[in-house]
Amino acid sequence: xxxxxxxxxxxxxxxxxxxxxxxxxxxxxxxxxxxxxxxxxxxxxxxxxxxxxxxxxxxxxxxxxxxxxxxxxxxxxxxxxxxxxxxxxxxxxxxxxxxxxxxxxxxxxxxxxxxxxxxxxxxxxxxxxxxxxxxxxxxxxxxxxxxxxxxxxxxxxxxxxxxxxxxxxxxxxxxxxxxxxxxxxxxxxxxxxxxxxxxxxxxxxxxxxxxxxxxxxxxxxxxxxxxxxxxxxxxxxxxxxxxxxxxxxxxxxxxxxxxxxxxxxxxxxxxxxxxxxxxxxxxxxxxxxxxxxxxxxxxxxxxxxxxxxxxxxxxxxxxxxxxxxxxxxxxxxxxxxxxxxxxxxxxxxxxxxxxxxxxxxxxxxxxxxxxxxxxxxxxxxxxxxxxxxxxxxxxxxxxxxxxxxxxxxxxxxxxxxxxxxxxxxxxxxxxxxxxx
Length: 436
Ligand SMILES: *[C@@H]1O[C@H](CO)[C@@H](O)[C@H](O)[C@H]1NC(C)=O
Ligand SMILES: *[C@@H]1O[C@H](CO)[C@@H](O)[C@H](O)[C@H]1NC(C)=O
Ligand SMILES: *[C@@H]1O[C@H](CO)[C@@H](O)[C@H](O)[C@H]1NC(C)=O
Ligand SMILES: *[C@@H]1O[C@H](CO)[C@@H](O)[C@H](O)[C@H]1NC(C)=O
Ligand SMILES: *[C@@H]1O[C@H](CO)[C@@H](O)[C@H](O)[C@H]1NC(C)=O
Fold this sequence. Notes:
The chain contains nine helices and 14 strands. It has helices at residues 2-9, 12-16, 85-103, 123-140, 159-169, 246-262, 277-284, 332-340, 430-435, and strands at 64-70, 107-110, 144-146, 193-197, 211-215, 222-223, 237-238, 268-271, 348-353, 362-368, 374-379, 396-403, 411-417, 422-428. Strand 10 and strand 11 (374-379) form a beta hairpin. Helix 3 (85-103) runs parallel beside helix 4, helix 4 packs across helix 5 (159-169) and helix 6 (246-262) packs parallel to helix 8 (332-340). The relative contact order is 0.14. The site of one 2-acetamido-2-deoxy-beta-D-glucopyranose has 3 residues, from loops.
C-alpha cells in the first residue's frame, strides 16, 4: 500500500524503477468517473479531464474547430520602433484583434516569445504587456493557451511566471498549465501539457476527445543571477535550447495511459517554440533544398495545389540556416516518443514552431510515425511589431481549420496576413506529404 503511494508520487525517472518485475508498468485501476484527476509525473493515474474547473472545449455545432496561432509577438521589444515602445505594443494588440475579427477562431494558441523579457524593467511591466496582448481574446471570450520561448525566460519572467499571469488575467480562458513536477526542467520549461478538444459541447468529460493539442516546452533563454535592468549584461546563464529529455518519458507514459483509457488516441497537433532539427534537414536536404520558397520563390507556381510545380513549397524562407533546438539532435528523445509511442499510432497533423521570424512554410519532415505516416512540419507566422522584422515579411496568423468528418486524416491550413490576404492554403494529409 505504502509502496504504491510512494511509487505513484515519485518523479517519472524514479517511477520507472517501480515497475513490477514482469515488466508491465504499475497501473492503478481506472475509476468510473475520471474527471478532476490531477497529473503527476510518474503517476500511472490517468488524467482524462485535466480542466475540471474550465469550460469543456469542443468542435462547434457544424462540426468545425478553427485554431489561430499567434507567434513571436515580443511585447516590450521596440527594435522596429525604438522611439515608442508603447506604439509597438498597441499596434501588436490591434493586430491580434484584427485577426480575431477576420477569422473568429474557436481557440488561440500562442507559440512563444510572448514578450521580450530583456526589455523589461519590472514584473508589473511584464504583466501589463501580457494583459495588453491578450485583452482582445478576453473581450471576445476566446479560450487560449501558450508555449513560451527563449525571450520569455529573461528579465522578470520565466515560462512558469508568464503562465501564472495568464491564469490571473484570464482565469476562465487560459488553458496553459504547468508540467507535473520533475517534467520539463522547472520554471524555465514548464509548458508541457495537452488540451482535449471534444467532438461536441455535451460530450462527457474524460471521454475520448476528437483532437489533442500538445504544448512541448523548448526552454532556452537566460537565468538571471539577480533580477533587474542593471544586470542586463551580466545575466548569461544560458538555458538549454531543447525540450528536456524528461518530457519524452512523460509523453510515453501519458499517451499510453490515454490510449489505454480511450482505446485509440485522438489525432494530435503539436506546438513547440523552437523548431526541431527536422526543420533544418528539410530546409537543407534534397529534394527540398532551395525549393521551400523564400521571397524570391513566391511565384504563383510555388503555391500548393498547383500541380505544375509539385516539388516546390510556398512560404517565406528567409531565416536560412534556421535556428533549431540544440546542436546535435538533443531533441530526438521527445521526437522519438511522439512518433514511436502511442501518439504516433494516430494522425500527427503537424509539429508547429515559431522562433525564426523570417520563415512561414509547411513541409514534410524526415520523421515517420508508427502508423507509417510522414509528419508535417509547419512554421507559424510572426505576429505583431515586436522583435526582429522586415516589412516585406508581412505579419499574420497561421490557421488550422478542422472538420470533425476529416479530423482523423487531415486539416486545412493557411496563413491570414495582416494585409488581409489568405495565403498558402494547404490540406495537410498523408497524400500531401508523399506527393511532395
Ligand atoms: C507613443 O505612442 C503612444 C500610444 O500610441 C502615443 O500616445 C504617444 O503620443 C507616442 N509618443 C511619441 C513620443 O511618439
Ligand atoms: C519601467 O519603464 C517604464 C516605461 O519606460 C517607466 O514608466 C517605469 O517607471 C519603469 N519602472 C522602473 C521600476 O524603473
Ligand atoms: C469565471 O467563471 C466563474 C464560474 O462561472 C465565475 O463565477 C467568474 O466570475 C468568472 N470569472 C471571470 C473573471 O470571468
Ligand atoms: C501554376 O503554375 C504555373 C507555372 O508557374 C502558372 O503559370 C500558373 O498560373 C499557376 N496556377 C495557379 C492556379 O496558381
Ligand atoms: C518512448 O517510447 C518509444 C516507443 O516504445 C521508445 O522507442 C522510446 O525509447 C521511449 N522513450 C523513452 C524516453 O522512454
